[in-house]
């Protein structure tokens, strides 16, 4: 398990990471989400020991980062970092050996990951001759080739075509199923929603949400929608009678009325509407992770609220 405990990082006056705490349990994929400059890469760099913290700590299975446990972490840095002129296969073997694999095991692992990421034919090409998307696949192979227990991936999906996204997604799901703890940052919230057990949202270095996608959606569901063929005038009378403040919209063909409201007296309204017509749609509007993210990121900050 990866534990981030009250981690802070200051760059001069800027608090890039501010008392941040969360965990990535074994076998879970945790999505790390935040606007540009929120502090995701800084947190990941500190976790990898590339950058020092101003305060707080990062623990890998209860221990601070060391040469030993660094070997069990697959890292894909934002700035990438492979050798452009080295052949794909050679650098993966080099990395696997660096992480302690013997020659034969390293060669086998490289062939396995190149095949899994559809790169076998590029094994003897220089990295720089590959397209950016394929270079990114090699970066993922580099993070995986020594069979890490943890994965820290900084925007692994950026710039990938849909096929590559699918390949990478499957790889991450399989790794999680075999017990690997994965933290990945991404701005592709549809992917985060699909892949992650848990989502950590940060804003200006601070934690604003740490929950399952399902729980976040449940908490963020505050709007109801009802569509009916009951006459608009009748519906408006019902709303007045029940004192429900709702916005109604009459369909283009005038045969349907839809309304959205905060869910007050939803059952009573449903019962009344059914006496006057058919209910064609009824229920809470479940927000997407993108909607929730916008709400969280655009919400007034606490200090502004308290002014
Ligand atoms: N070495 C540095 N020196 C000074 N400021 C830095 C340094 N590294 C990062 N920052 C600042 O820290 C803040 C957090 O940056 P960071 O790269 O962690 O954000 P991020 O969430 O990864 O953003 P993005 O989604 O754009 O990659 C930003 O304001 C950034 O400008």
What this model shows, in words?
It is a single chain. The protein is α/β, with parallel strands linked by helices. The protein has two domains: 2-218, P-loop containing nucleotide triphosphate hydrolases (Rossmann fold), CATH 3.40.50.300; 222-284, ACT domain (Alpha-Beta Plaits), CATH 3.30.70. Helices cover 38% and strands 26% of the residues. The protein is built from twelve helices and 13 strands. The protein has helices at 40-47, 67-70, 88-98, 103-116, 132-144, 162-177, 189-195, 213-220, 232-241, 266-276, 289-298, 302-305, and strands at 2-11, 14-24, 29-33, 55-60, 73-76, 150-154, 181-185, 198-203, 206-212, 224-228, 247-250, 257-261, 279-284. The strands form three sheets. The chain has a six-stranded mixed beta sheet with strand order 5-6-7-3-8-9, sandwiched between helices. A hairpin with a 6-residue loop joins strand 11 and strand 12. Helix 3 crosses helix 4 (103-116) and helix 9 runs antiparallel to helix 10. The longest helix is centred in the middle third of the chain and has 16 residues, at 162-177.
Continuous helix count? 12
Classify the helix fraction into a percent range.
25-40%
- What's the CATH superfamily of the largest domain, by name? P-loop containing nucleotide triphosphate hydrolases
Strand content: 25-35%
CATH-derived topology of the largest domain: Rossmann fold
Number of strands: 13
Mean pLDDT: 89
Largest sheet: 6 strands, mixed
By helix and strand content, what is the structural category?
alpha/beta
Radius of gyration using CA atoms only? 25 Å
Organism: Boudabousia tangfeifanii
Pfam families: ABC_tran
Keywords: ATP-binding, Nucleotide-binding, Transport
Family: Belongs to the ABC transporter superfamily.
